Amino acid sequence: MPRSLRIAIVGPTHPYSGGIATHTTSLAHRLRAAGHDVRLLSWKAQYPAFLRSGTTRVPESEPEVRPFDRSSAKLAWYDPTSWFRAGWSVRRADVVLVTAVTPYHAVPYAVLRLAAGRRARGVVLAHNVLPHEHGRFDEALIRLLYRQYGAVLVHSDEQAAIARRILGPDSPVEVRVTRLPLADLLLGAPGEAPHPVPSGTPGDPVTVGFFGMVRRYKGVDQLIEAASRVPGIRVVVRGEFWQPVEEYREQVRSLGVEDRVEIVDGYVAMSDMARTITDFDVVALPYRTASSTINVALAHRFGVPALVSDAGTLPLDVRDGVDGLVVPADDVPALTDALRRLVEPGALARLRDGVDAAGADRRWREYTDTVAAFARD
Q: Which residue would you say has higher pLDDT here, 331 or 298?
């Protein structure tokens, strides 16, 4: 039996909101369940407020995942002594794994690594190697971070290629790939049984829903444009908007589809996730570009098929024609054709029947084994 490891995870956890915080917390729980001694070091202040808009924290009493009991939140972006103290506190660890939320963390994490010493294996967990809107110094900061730790874990071959390009062909830094599993979210259960399959007619439309942070690269504007061409499609968009929400509402008005497109501006709490997803007939992720996302797994968790672009890992998460549809990214005519397929008689029922609602949990064993393997190889 492989030996138990002392693993220190550094990254956001409750009360921070969002997929990275929920994944970091779930990883701590899963590694401990696998027999490892795990500590979680979180942030009391991750970065200056201007680096991210929208909701960054949830109420203390409303966690999105079960909080990890062996955690602390002392790191602060403005306090270099907190970076050093955190590193010193994990000097006896076998693995120090840091979650790279932003290139801005390269310097704090470099100080932490120096303070931790060289006994522990250093690993960077990169959900996105580069931000979706990256700046001129981001690649240099990422290169510094990866070289300091010596190993990088990413969630797709595409992200691995970006990491290797930034590092250069002769870099000794190890880059490994493993699929992103669904975090152990406190989702609750749907309040109602699945609603009947709609006919896909203007009087009984198929509801195609988008939820989460609304940013330009996620292609919501293209979904609205495509839906305007298919009368049997209704679109619901629920989330926080990085661009002015009025831009999207004006698009809806200009296309004359106010009766078929609903826009709800606001954070979707985890306690509302089950109801949100099961109100949709199909979850849409028409991203122009992507790295990875848990939103397909969330849809499938509640038996809802997904319509996705072929950006990032999205086409790996959907079996085209079985539990969803895959279309070329940044292609409105292709997206329109996919929406037309959804309103064909029997199409939506077949996709629903193809969803494997329990499939997401199978990835965690491979994921935790990959993290542990960094220390053993």
A: 331
